[in-house]
Structures are given as structure tokens and as C-alpha cells.
Amino acid sequence: MTGYDFHPQARDDLDEIWEFIRPENPAAADRVIAEILAAIRALVPFPNRGHRRVDLTSRPLRFIRVRDYLIAYVPDEKPLWVLAVLHGRRSPHILSAILKSRQ
Q: Rounded to a whole number, what is the distance in angstroms from the first to the last CA of the chain?
């Protein structure tokens, strides 16, 4: 048991990140995904460690950043529910719309 699970589209987010990085550097793509997964695993015992982003959502989500990626998760779910893994430099309006579409 991992203590966390992914929204189906969050799994797609990880695949898209890997596919984006892989053509230039497959080893780097593996490292980025490994860092994201390690950060998520570290949240399991301390789910409130992340910060809120009221500019993106009024839902009780928390966020952490790994490199340029923003991980959105529901801290009160058991297992911890990862809602999205998105590039943090996207427009806040786009980030907000993506989060709103994922229930």
C-alpha cells in the first residue's frame, strides 16, 4: 500500500511530463518522475505540509512544487488523493480551469 492514489487524469499528467522530457533526455525524464513520486510519498505522513492556493481554487486542496511542477492534492483523503501534476508556469486561469474540471 502506497498511502496515496491518483485521479486518472493525474496519471495522464505524469505520462505527459515524461513524454515531454524523454526525447531530449530519457534519464532526466525518469529522474523528474521519480522526484515527483518521492515528494508525494513524503506527503503521506504529513499531508498538511503543502500550501493552499486560494487564487486557483476554493476547494480544500494543498499544493507543493517539485522543480517546475505543481502537485495538487486533497490532504484529508485516505489514501492521499493526488488531483493533478501540472507545470507551474501555466496561466493561473488555465490551472484553475483544470482543477475545476477534476472532481
A: 23
The tally of domains found in the chain comes to 1
Task: Find the helix or strand (DSSP H, E) in which 15 lies.
Answer: helix 8-21
Amino acid (1-letter code) at residue 67: R
Are 39 and 63 contacting, i.e. CB atoms less than 8 angstroms apart?
no
Whole-prediction pTM: 0.92
pLDDT tens digit sequence for 62-82: 999 999 999 999 999 999 999
Which range of residues forms the domain containing residue 93?
4-101
Q: Which residues of 25-62 are buried (b: 16+ CB within 10 A; e: fewer)?
A: eeeebeebbeebbebbeebeeebeebeebeebbeeebb
Could you tell me the CATH number of the domain that includes residue 10?
A: 3.30.2310.20
